[in-house]
Amino acid sequence: MQSKTPKISEAVVRRLPIYLRYLQHLFDMNIRTVSSHELGQKLDMNPAQIRKDLAYFGEFGRKGIGYEVIYLIEKIKQILKLDRTIRVALVGAGHLGIAISNYNQYLKENLTITAIFDTDPKKVGTSIGAMNIYHLDELSAIVAKQEIEMGIITVPAFAAQEVVNKLVAAGVRTILNFAPVTLKVPANVHLRNADLTTELQSLAYYL
Ligand SMILES: NC(=O)c1ccc[n+]([C@@H]2O[C@H](COP(=O)([O-])OP(=O)(O)OC[C@H]3O[C@@H](n4cnc5c(N)ncnc54)[C@H](O)[C@@H]3O)[C@@H](O)[C@H]2O)c1
Q1: Gap from CA of 178 to ligand 1 centroid (Å)
Q2: What does the alpha-carbon distance between residue 97 and residue 114 come to, in Å, rounded to a whole number?
Q3: How confident is the model at residue 105 (pLDDT cuts 50, 70, 90)?
Q4: How far, in Å, from the CA of 130 to the mean position of ligand 1?
Q5: Which ranges carry the CoA-binding domain (predicted)?
Q6: Upper half-sphere CA count for residue 35 (Cβ side, 13 Å)
Q7: How many Å lie between the centroid of ligand 1 and the Cα of residue 154?
Q8: Would the ipTM clear 0.85, i.e. be above it?
Q9: CA 94 – ligand 1 centroid, Å
Q10: This model's pTM is above 0.95
Q11: ∠ CA 186-157-206, rounded to 5°
Q12: What distance in Å separates the CA atoms of residue 112 and residue 2, rounded to the nearest whole number?
């Protein structure tokens, strides 16, 4: 059963995976405790901010010893709901979709792409690794059958609104969109955009 998570700000939710990644690196290096000062130095963040973020969920750290790495990993995973398998649907088995699907096989976390969707008859019925490519029309049925909770959109911009509508109608509430277009979703859906072009464009300002 899931434990109740306190409501936390989006800024903290975005920082937790950064802490988690470094803590997992420490664990792999056999390092068992870490101070907020060391975390701050390695992550180029303010130690006071880190202590504040982590204090949200109870008193994890101990004065003079710091945080127990494994305990913090488990706690952050629990908060982010990564302590269980989260099944993901990817829509758009093109260049980007194939790259992301292949990367998925190496993911350490409990996030796993279990189904891929496309409309191209040449792709539907084939597979990428162990993941089958289904027709978009099957999305709702497969999402229900596989208990999929997250969606990734890698279709061309013109098709993205149709795809997001189908994901939402199927009950998917967390979606990562790679298509360079602003999508409309209901208020109870969490949509994030990964937009390479706008990132590069704003970076160009600093040239
Ligand atoms: N390739 C990149 O490096 C890159 C980087 C950032 C963002 N993007 C964006 O990601 C998206 C995909 O890019 P790509 O290069 O992989 O394109 P692509 O043309 O190689 O692949 C798009 C895939 O979507 C499928 N598709 C089209 N309409 C569909 C629909 N209604 N339902 C389901 N599938 C549908 C196509 O059949 C195709 O397999 C684009 O919006 C692109 O702008 C691509």
Answers
A1: 8
A2: 13
A3: low
A4: 21
A5: 81-182
A6: 7
A7: 5
A8: yes
A9: 5
A10: no
A11: 95
A12: 19
What pLDDT, on a 0 to 100 scale, did the predictor assign at position 107?
65
The CATH architecture to which 86-200 belongs is: 3-Layer(aba) Sandwich (3.40)
- Asked if 114 contacts 87 with a C-beta cutoff of 8 angstroms, the reply is yes
For the Cβ of 159 lying below 6 angstroms from any atom of ligand 1, the answer is: yes
Question: Side chain identity at 163, as an amino acid letter?
Answer: V
pLDDT digits (tens, 9 = 90+) for 171-204: 999 999 999 999 999 999 999 999 988 999 999 9
Instruction: Say how far apart CA 20 and CA 25 lie, in whole Å.
Output: 9
Interval between CA 23 and ligand 1 midpoint (Å): 34
Which atom of ligand 1 has the smallest separation from the CA of 181? 41
Q: Determine whether the shortest distance from the Cβ of 95 to ligand 1 is under 6 A.
A: yes
Please name the residue whose Cα sits nearest to atom 27 of ligand 1: 155
CA distance linking residue 151 with residue 84, whole number of Å: 17
| Cβ of residue 94 lying under 6 Å from some atom of ligand 1 | yes
Residue type, 92: G
Domains of the chain by residue range? 10-79, 86-200
Specify the CATH architecture of the domain 10-79. Answer: Orthogonal Bundle (1.10)
Please indicate if the annotation marks 95 as binding a ligand: yes
Measured in degrees and rounded to the nearest 5, phi and psi for residue 15 equal -80, -30
**C-beta of 101 in contact with ligand 1 (< 6 A):** no
